[in-house]
Amino acid sequence: MALKILEGCINCDMCEPECPNKAISMGEKVYEINPDLCTECVGFYDNPTCLSVCPIDVIIKDPDRVEDHDTLYEKFVHLVNEDKI
């Protein structure tokens, strides 16, 4: 599943540069994760880097966007082939 940043985000700028998929960007009020680009770092790292750098733990797995590891990997391969990363 893709990740999601909650409204409690303090815009500390830690997550955006860590995202290898460039899925994180500033939204209207807080950072947002584009679920079409988020692979939970599958294809790059063992764990999502944004989760590890968030100082206040406001990044969660999006319950509305359930994806298994194979699906996330397929998305990663597609993004790499499309040069969107």
From TrEMBL:
Please report the name of this protein according to its UniProt entry: YfhL family 4Fe-4S dicluster ferredoxin
Domain named 4Fe-4S ferredoxin-type is located at: 1-29
Pfam family name, one: Fer4_7
- Any idea which UniProt keywords this protein has? 4Fe-4S, Electron transport, Iron, Iron-sulfur, Metal-binding, Transport
InterPro entries with a match to the protein in the record: 4Fe4S_Fe-S-bd, 4Fe4S_Fe_S_CS, PSI_iron-sulfur_center, YfhL-like
Cofactor(s) required for function per UniProt = [4Fe-4S] cluster
Taxonomic superkingdom: Bacteria
Q: Which GO terms describe its cellular component?
A: cytoplasm
Output the Gene Ontology terms for molecular function.
4 iron, 4 sulfur cluster binding; metal ion binding
